[in-house]
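User: Please run a holo structure prediction.
Assistant: Happy to. Please share the sequence and the ligand.
User: Here you go; the ligand is T4K.
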Amino acid sequence: MDDTLFVTRPFMPPLEDFLPYLEKIWEGGVLTNNGPFHHELEEELGKHLGVEHVALFANGTLALVTALQALRVSGEVITTPFSFPATSHSLLWNNLTPIFADIDPLTCNLDVAKVEAAITPQTTAILPVHCYGTPCNVEALQNLADVYGLMLIYDSAHAFDVKYKGQSLLSHGDLSVVSFHATKVFNTFEGGAIICRDERIKRRIDLLKNFGFANETTVTAPGINGKMSEFNSALGLLQLKHIDTAINARRKVADRYRKLLAHIPGIRLLPEHPDTIGNGSYFPIFIEEEFPVSRDELYFAMREKQIRGRRYFYPLISEMPMYRNIATADSENLAVAHRISSSVICLPIYSDMGEGQVDRVVEAIRSSL
Ligand code: T4K
């Protein structure tokens, strides 16, 4: 039997529970274009998360690209190099210039002082990431955005159902973009959404994700096809019924890792924050100098044992060919991000991961001591 442990596995509700949804789609013949399941999922997600408006998308990347379009962002946008390429790619797709700022070593999110130092007369927005679902310093970033008159768009791809000070983390910023990709805690196979507070902006987003159609004969913007289908929306409705169980199970895995990995010299964990209830979406560890082997030696030793963690995020976005000639991509400007990127391994974590499997991962780490 294949006993490979991947960095994640999707939560799969019982197949028979999906069949009634499929039957309804087959009976109704509406497969996409704002159908009944699409509408219902937007409503249900809004209620579940306690947020004003949800605009569903075919994936998180299209949602990011559209969020920047919807706010007519221009010029320079300050962002993090420590993320998945989609974060910065969404800027290039909008003909915007990414300006990289360094990150905070304890949260792996943008360092607010470094963001402020990067602001120029051309800056119009900040695009931070709640990396691994850890909240950015949302108060300080909002303050900066207010003082300098900047738009604030969060890449919240990892942050579904994270609570910060009793509220959904997704309620912060002008817009917040979440991913429902198969590898995420809440998945619709492929999918994503923009969370927004302003009804007019939601209308503009809806128009932009549907080619710019204002009505049958009027096209008011060069919109894109970003719509989520009825199949994916139905999967979301079914997932939502199980989401609390799925996230609680992930949190238990995270707790066990925390307990077993505490006090191993050279292994650093992300600190927990009393104001935050996390979603267990990732479990990064940082291999520091005192650990007897390097990050890559440990990573490949674990792979030999069929433990396929991932080095999220290595390399940095700023090291990729389409970004490395930007002045702020210089490694001296991003010293912390480089250190974190070369020390991280995200361990396997998913909702049906058993205690024995967690122990196997920990044992593989301990065997390098
Ligand atoms: N912003 C941020 C900060 C993001 O992290 C992402 C995506 C985005 C924006 C863009 O959102 P989307 O447009 O994707 O909605 C994965 C995901 O493809 C990607 O969604 C995610 N971030 C990123 C962090 O992880 P890969 O290249 O590592 O995926 P892959 O295919 O190697 O999958 C990882 C493991 O997951 C596999 O080894 C096994 C497991 N897996 C994967 C898939 C696809 C499954 O068990 N079943 C599956 O169907 O990027």
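Residues 212 and 284 are 40 Å apart (CA to CA).
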